[in-house]
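Severity: low
Component: inverse-folding endpoint
Summary: output formatting inconsistent between runs
Steps to reproduce: submit the following structure tokens with default settings.
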């Protein structure tokens, strides 16, 4: 079953019946931002998947998860999620354990992980606007643009707001399944 994203105008906090979670790309951790200003910021699917995975791990921090479990629970691409988890591991947000009974879990307590830090890390390869690209992009307005500075200020305000929220505040406990085994991380 293909999951349809929430409509662009879906209210913050609306439920997605297909995956049973909040529209997390704008909710949970953006509690103090005015809805109008939050609606203008968009996160990549890569970051959205990363935040979902981290929120799920925070909901059961002593457990090892597999990409198959998370992908199935949230009805997202397993292949895309594998890349996300690799990036989260490289950034130090998760640790992975290979082999039989392996998986991944949070590398730090959820209280120590700031959402703004996660978003900065996962969005680092994606410029908000073309002129923010490392190579400067190809925008012909760049030499005289008066909007670039305002975009930079808006991005920083958005991230500062997310810096005030920890992963623990957004933990998602999931939906326990009957007969599901609970794998714990080795001490």
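Observed output (run 2 of 3):
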């Amino acid at each position: 079953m293909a999951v349809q994203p929430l409509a662009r105008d879906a209210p913050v906090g609306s439920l997605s019946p297909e995956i049973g979670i909040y529209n997390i790309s704008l909710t949970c951790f953006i509690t103090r931002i005015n809805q109008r200003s939050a609606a203008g910021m968009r996160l990549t699917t890569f970051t959205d998947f990363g935040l979902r995975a981290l929120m799920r791990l925070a909901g059961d921090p002593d457990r090892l998860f597999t990409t198959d479990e998370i992908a199935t629970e949230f009805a997202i691409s397993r292949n895309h999620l594998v890349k996300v988890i690799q990036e989260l591991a490289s950034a130090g947000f998760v640790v992975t354990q290979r082999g039989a009974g392996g998986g991944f879990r949070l590398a730090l307590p959820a209280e120590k992980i700031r959402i703004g830090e996660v978003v900065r890390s996962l969005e680092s390869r994606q410029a908000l606007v073309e002129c923010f690209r490392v190579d400067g992009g190809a925008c012909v307005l760049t030499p005289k643009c008066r909007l670039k500075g305002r975009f930079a200020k808006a991005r920083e305000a958005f991230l500062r707001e997310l810096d005030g929220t920890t992963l623990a505040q957004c933990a998602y406990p999931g939906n326990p399944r009957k007969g599901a085994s609970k794998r714990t991380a080795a001490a």
